[in-house]
Amino acid sequence: MTLGPSADQWAAAVAAVRSAGPDDEIQLICHVNPDGDALGSMLGFGLGLRRLGFTRVRATFPGDFVVPDPYREIPGVDLLVPESDAFAEPRLILVFDVASESRLGALAARVADAPASVVLDHHASNTGFGGVQLVDPRAAATSVVADGLLSRLGVPLDAEIAECLYIALATDTGSFKFDMTTVSVHELAARLIATGIRPGEISRRIFDSKPFGAMKLTGEVIGRAVLEPSAAAGRGMVWTYATLADLERHGQPPYVLDALIDPVRSVAEADVSMVVKQVAPGEWSVSLRSKGAVDVSGVAVSQGGGGHRLAAGFTGYGEASDVVDTVRRLLDEHLN
Ligand code: 5GP
Ligand code: MN
């Protein structure tokens, strides 16, 4: 899939939202272990629904109900409920930043059963689940798609909606550094900033603030990184891992590990970078990045995961070394 939503798909999404009455239950869902794009696009859209007069809007994500500290004060956070408090039989479901049903856990069945559902996403690996698909692989973030639907619904941007969409856009573009940081990305950022939001203050809160223990943990995990110059058919791979014991020793929640891929991917000698994060005994959440030579989403999809060409992930099993061995082998297979 390379093209964005068709005119018919946009019209169907608008019709799906308008098919709900002001007192109908509307459930918003984003992916497990939500990041800035998942939460920002979902809550920004949820605030937009409120502006349209919808009174019964809830937002949730599957699994442990942990809202990372940096997002505790994001506008619309009051829409968030644990999975157990999500509407059982909502009139309408909207799904944000979810490439496949596996990222919805037990909530996948609710999407399948809903009278109307709309999926807003930007992953090329999106599997096409749900009623109406608004999937644009060219979009830098799901919030670009959310902005497109909000404007078609006639919702004006205000500072609260804009802060949510800005957090999402800044998260998925690496603070406007990555390749998909196009003219239209900056045009959207300009429209968002024009509402009066403070990009500097938002960036400090979301990206540049962490507990001392998180910094110490980061130092330790980076300190054990391994560079394999001959991996990925000579393009090089750098990797590290973190265990539940590491988190416990430093008193840190799992989400602090998600930022670790950024220093690791900066290693000049490696095209491919990887962080293997333990989520349970024998189970690892794997983050993969490429500087351009390797389509890491191919590796991730072959392991039941997904993502983008240069940023992808999957769940691996066994020891951390088993996961590294698997990726090393798959990279060589993909490249030879
Ligand atoms: P991250 O490494 O930041 O967790 O994820 C990078 C990209 O890969 C994101 O676009 C994310 O949606 C995708 N991704 C990460 N883990 C998984 C996974 O287990 N399954 C799928 N389908 N996609 C994943
Ligand atoms: Mn995203």
Automatic annotation (TrEMBL):
InterPro entries xref list: DDH_dom, DHH_sf, DHHA1_dom, Oligoribo/pAp-PDE_c-di-AMP_PDE
Residues in DDH domain copies: 26-168
Gene Ontology MF terms: nucleic acid binding
Domain DHHA1 as annotated: residue spans: 252-330
Gene3D superfamilies according to UniProt: 3.10.310.30, inorganic pyrophosphatase (n-terminal core)
Residues annotated as signal peptide: none
Name of protein: Phosphoesterase RecJ-like protein
Source organism: Actinoplanes italicus
